[in-house]
Specification:
Layout (H helix, E strand, L loop, with lengths): L1 H19 L3 H14 L4 H13 L3 H14 L4 H13 L3 H14 L4 H13 L3 H13 L5 H15 L3 H14 L4 H14 L2 H14 L4 H10 L8 H11 L5 H17 L3 H16 L7 H14 L2 H5 L10 E5 L5 H9 L4 E3 L5 H9 L12 H16 L7 E4 L8 H7 L4 E6 L2 H9 L13 H22 L3 E5 H6 L1 H12 L22 H4 L18 H14 L1
Parallel strand pairs: 1-3, 1-4, 2-3, 4-5
Helix pairs in contact: 1-2, 2-3, 3-4, 4-5, 5-6, 6-7, 7-8, 8-9, 9-10, 9-11, 10-11, 11-12, 12-13, 13-15, 14-15, 15-16, 17-24, 23-24
């Protein structure tokens, strides 16, 4: 036995020397063999876990950590490492299970309740998240203002309970009146509601505390309409944009904001230069948009979703949700606001349900959809409706205006054969430039180059053509530019499609007092305006826009 112990210790020393010399695989082999000989050794499992993490063998590290938790269930570090491993793999349910297990050992740990809350939200268990955050507060967690802000975000973004979101933000500021994230979120809350003065007050409080807060300066640029470029904040934004100390994420925000300011002032050359620079900075941090890959993806969708596949699911649900989709920046928010002004329609906003459903259950898409059956689709449809009606129990129609649901129309029509689908379309040049002038989410890696944006626009048109061929008059298209010219006629036709009577409120949508989450929130709060139709002409002398114009003309011939 003494010889065995000596041998074990000598081997551990040898493995450690290998690690110091960078011979990781030799060390791994030693620890692996030692684990076979000493499967209950906590010391060996700890070292083996570290090596598996170093080698990105996450699944093996999880196995090691599960053993460590069993061997020593009182060591918090093992639970934290195990949770981090599951989180790296996007295993949100398993991550939550780890913190549930930790709480059996440490039921009064506010940090464990906080972590359970954080990952419960990622697992789409929003009520569990709120309950766990509240438990952390009850246990006197440090920095309660951070917890209140997290709770507010859940209420606002996930549950659309805006009144409760505001209450939590006020709780955060009661705990810490100078907590900038609470002030920033409260400013955004007022901005979404169209309460401009209150929003500006909150942003100004941030600038009083942090005069060089780039994100806040950028947001202020979107709230204000600039008639002159003499505003003192513009010089400050220039300095921050040029500073090597400014974080890249803030520099990009400032670039887009300065582009907007100079567009307001009709200094279009200067505006385009900032938009170009901001887009180039953003593009450097994104994966490359492949024309070939996206064309293949669209082709796969068109090939998969045909009449025979759809016919299998003809009576899954009798519900009639309304989906508004198309290219980003093609008018989906405007259409939703117009419809939500009708007493029989409620605005549901950009719901993530379909996207998350596909990511979590039907991936890779579309091929994984071959495994769907009527029972599964019926359950998905039921869950979607329960989620949608929770906040709008009395509405005849609830809109879902996520533009990229265009990709999932085949799936949506299988779940909801009677769904109303409204496509939005807009002049290609205006639409592409509007995308280029807007900072979109990182997954939209086409949005920082005009040629890529137009390619994406073409593929959307190709997909829309397929859906129209498949579902015919069950789909309806609204043209943004025609809506601007003849609002009453176009709105009337859209209401006819939904089987709704005319209502004058639809022409006064800017008076609707509901939250609007969009890059053009302040424009939506104004009556219909023609300034965005033909906007591309302000930039027609730019080389990139000339090239875009050429591409559009070639396609139309």
């Amino acid at each position: 036995m003494t010889a065995q112990i000596k041998n074990k210790h000598e081997l551990i020393d040898l493995a450690r020397r290998h690690i110091q010399e960078g011979a990781i695989m030799q060390a791994f082999k030693i620890y692996y063999d030692l684990h076979v000989s000493y499967p209950e050794s906590e010391e060996i499992l700890v070292e083996l876990t570290g090596l598996n993490l170093h080698l990105e063998n996450i699944d093996h590290a999880i196995d090691n950590l599960n053993k460590l938790v069993r061997i020593n269930p009182f060591k918090k570090a093992y639970y934290d490492q195990l949770a981090n491993c599951h989180a790296r793999l996007g295993n949100w349910s398993e991550t939550c299970d780890v913190f549930h297990a930790l709480l059996l050992q440490r039921p009064k740990s506010p940090d464990a309740h906080f972590n359970l809350a954080f990952y419960s939200r990622k697992n789409a268990d929003f009520q569990k998240s709120l309950d766990s955050y509240q438990r952390a507060l009850d246990l006197k967690i440090a920095r309660p203002e951070e917890v209140y802000v997290n709770m507010a975000v859940i209420c606002s973004e996930d549950l659309q309970d805006y009144a409760q979101a505001r209450a939590y933000l006020e709780d955060a500021l009661a705990a810490n009146p100078v907590y900038v994230p609470a002030l920033y979120n409260l400013a955004n809350y007022y901005e979404d509601l169209g309460h401009k003065d209150n929003s500006i007050k909150c942003f100004q409080k941030i600038l009083d505390l942090q005069p060089a807060n780039a994100k806040t300066l950028a947001r202020m640029a979107y709230i204000n309409k600039y008639k002159s470029c003499d505003d003192g904040s513009i010089e400050k934004m220039h300095a921050l944009f040029d500073s090597t100390e400014t974080l890249m994420v803030d520099k990009i925000d400032l670039g887009f904001a300065l582009g907007k300011i100079y567009d307001d002032c009709e200094k279009f050359d200067k505006a385009f230069d900032f938009y170009r620079r901001a887009n180039e900075l953003e593009k450097n941090s994104l994966s490359t948009y492949s024309h070939t890959d996206y064309e293949s993806f669209v082709a796969a969708i068109i090939e998969f979703f045909d009449e025979n596949w759809i016919a299998r699911f003809d009576n899954v649900s009798k519900d009639t949700p309304v989906f508004i989709c198309g290219m980003f920046r093609s008018g989906s928010t405007l259409i939703e606001q117009i419809l939500a002004s009708h007493p029989e329609v409620s605005a549901g906003g950009e719901k993530e349900y379909i996207l998350k459903l596909v990511e979590n259950n039907i991936s890779p898409f579309p091929s994984a959809a071959k495994n769907l059956n009527r029972s599964t689709l019926r359950q998905y449809a039921k869950s979607y409706i329960e989620n949608a009606t929770a906040r709008h129990p009395d509405a005849r129609y609830i809109t879902d205006k996520r533009p990229d649901n265009l990709i999932f129309i085949g799936l949506i029509k299988a779940m909801f054969p009677h769904a109303r689908i409204i496509f939005t379309e807009r002049n290609a040049l205006d639409n592409c430039l509007s995308v280029y002038f807007t900072r979109l989410q990182k997954r939209m890696n086409y949005a920082n180059n005009l040629e890529d944006i137009y390619h994406h626009y073409q593929q959307h048109s190709r997909l829309k053509k397929h859906w129209h061929a498949l579902f015919k008059d069950a789909l309806y298209t609204v043209n943004y530019d025609e809506l601007i010219v003849s609002p009453r006629d176009e709105i009337s036709k859209m209401l006819d499609y939904l089987g709704l009577p005319w209502h004058d409120n639809c022409l006064q949508f800017e008076k609707l007092d509901n939250p609007v989450r969009t890059a053009s929130a302040w424009q939506i709060r104004q009556p219909l305006y023609a300034s965005s139709s033909g906007r591309w002409k302000n930039y027609q002398e730019q080389a990139a826009v000339k090239n875009l114009h050429k591409l559009v003309n070639q396609q139309s011939q």
